[in-house]
Structures are given as structure tokens and as C-alpha cells.
């Protein structure tokens, strides 16, 4: 701490954080979208961020104590930049198959506990049997995040891949209940060095215990459910 006589080893704890996103979105759509998905959609969503932080002690915002105790920063991010192509309709109720390529939102499960982000990838998705079934097959190569805004940094591509497959089944096993099966495989090969963020702190691997670069392969397979079972309402049980 800068303050002589402070009795707390961490010094003064007062902090102030301000964060503002200005979100714009542009879409170019071809097709009759009243009853069915568009034939082609091009979407671009730039986000303009400004953030400010003020703390009472040095080396909280920056690794270098000479940089002081306040920080004003900004970032321009691409949260969406994709092409969505409608491959075909498979029923007169407009069940369909589509493919989407580019930076796009994805949610692996009901609440996004497992994986929820806006990442660079390719996704095949669609519906069957009057929208009773919905499926996703996807591959993502993860973009890094800007240190202070938490938004996408398209200048940094991680050696971290996510493969995802899920299927939603509405009204199963009872009406109003939605069942889901999910398989996710995460392949990480970021074991070739240390990564320090824009403020100078070690970010990968996490600075806890042994700071040794590592690679890993993780597979998750699960069955989830959401909705009422009689008098009991289940909220994303798995």
C-alpha cells in the first residue's frame, strides 16, 4: 500500500468501475420471412466499448505500479459477423436445415451453464416434426477476449476448439416438458508458452499453483430437462 500505517495488508479497498457498450447491428436478408426462415442473411454487429476503473492501490489495474490507480480504456469488437444460408425446407410446416458461418451466438444448454458465447465457427442447425425437434451440430475456434471490456478481440485467435452437438425434444416425456441431449468436446493446445494480458498480468495458465502451460481434452455428455412434471416445475435439471 502507498499509505503508511495501514493495518490491512491489502490497503484501501474502495473501487469504482464504469462500463458502457454501444451496440449496433446490421442485417441484409433475402427471402419471405413471414412464415419461414430467410433464404440468406448477412449480419454484422459491431460493439463500441468504453470503460473506466479507479482503485485505491497500485498493481490492481496494471502489473507495473508506475501506471497508477485509474484506467480509461476503449475497444471496438465484432460480436456477430456471419452468413446464414437456408439449405432447404423438409416439410410444409417449414421445418428446415440451415448453415451459419462466422462469428455467431451459441448456447449449448437451456441456461448456457456449459457453453454460451459469440464465437467464430460453423453451425448446421434445423428443426423436424413441426418444430418438435431442434438440433445443432457446430465447430468453433475460440476468439480471445479483450482484457478490459470482455468483448471479442478478432486479432487474437486461440488454439482452443469446441465441438458441439445437441438435440431438443419438446413435449417429452410429457406435454410442456423439454428434454435435451448434449455432447461437447473441448480441445485445447495452448501449451506452447505463457499468455500475458493487456495489463501485464499472467492470464494463461491461471496464476494459481503450478504456472505451467498445459493442454487438455474434455468431453461432456449429458441429458437435461426443463419444464413441468405434474405439480413439480424443474428448472434445467441434468
Average pLDDT over all residues: 92
Number of strands: 13
Rounded to an integer, what's the Rg over CA atoms? 23 Å
Question: Shape from CA axes?
Answer: elongated
Q: Work out the helix count.
A: 0
* Helix proportion range: under 10%
Return the string of H and E elements: EEEEEEEEEEEEE
Question: For this entry, what is the oligomeric state of its chains?
Answer: single chain
**Ends: how far apart?**
47 Å
Alpha-beta content class: mainly beta
Low-confidence stretches: none
As a percent range, the share of strand residues is over 45%
Major beta sheet, specifics?
11 strands, antiparallel
SSE blueprint and pairings:
Layout: E1 15-23, E2 26-30, E3 40-55, E4 70-89, E5 96-107, E6 116-128, E7 133-145, E8 152-170, E9 178-188, E10 195-196, E11 202-204, E12 216-229, E13 232-237
Antiparallel strand pairs: 1-3, 2-3, 3-4, 4-5, 5-6, 6-7, 7-8, 8-9, 9-12, 10-11, 12-13
What is the structure about, briefly put?
0% of the residues lie in helices and 60% in strands. It is mainly beta and 238 residues long.
Question: Characteristics of this structure?
Answer:
mainly beta, 0% helix, 60% strand
Amino acid at each position: 500500500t502507498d499509505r503508511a500505517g495501514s493495518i490491512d495488508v491489502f490497503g484501501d479497498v474502495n473501487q469504482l468501475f464504469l462500463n458502457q457498450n454501444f451496440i449496433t447491428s446490421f442485417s441484409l436478408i433475402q427471402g419471405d420471412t413471414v412464415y419461414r426462415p430467410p433464404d440468406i442473411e448477412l449480419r454484422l454487429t459491431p460493439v463500441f466499448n468504453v470503460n473506466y476503473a479507479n482503485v485505491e492501490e497500485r498493481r490492481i489495474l496494471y502489473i507495473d505500479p508506475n501506471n497508477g490507480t485509474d484506467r480509461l480504456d476503449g475497444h471496438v469488437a465484432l460480436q456477430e459477423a456471419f452468413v446464414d444460408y437456408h439449405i432447404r425446407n423438409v416439410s410444409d410446416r417449414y421445418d428446415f436445415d440451415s448453415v451459419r458461418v462466422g462469428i455467431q451466438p451459441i448456447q449449448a444448454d437451456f441456461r448456457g451453464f456449459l457453453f454460451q458465447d459469440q464465437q467464430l465457427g460453423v453451425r448446421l442447425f434445423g428443426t423436424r416434426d413441426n418444430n418438435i425437434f431442434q438440433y445443432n451440430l457446430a465447430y468453433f475456434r475460440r476468439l480471445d477476449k479483450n482484457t478490459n471490456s470482455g468483448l471479442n478481440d478478432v486479432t487474437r485467435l486461440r488454439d482452443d476448439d469446441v465441438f458441439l452437438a445437441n438435440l431438443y425434444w419438446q413435449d417429452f416425456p410429457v406435454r410442456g416438458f423439454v428434454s435435451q441431449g448434449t455432447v461437447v468436446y473441448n480441445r485445447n493446445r495452448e501449451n506452447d508458452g505463457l499468455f500475458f494480458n493487456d495489463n501485464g498480468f499472467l492470464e494463461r495458465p491461471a496464476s494459481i499453483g503450478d504456472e505451467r502451460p498445459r493442454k487438455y481434452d474434455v468431453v461432456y455428455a449429458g441429458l437435461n430437462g426443463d419444464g413441468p412434471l405434474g405439480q413439480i416445475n424443474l428448472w434445467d435439471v441434468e
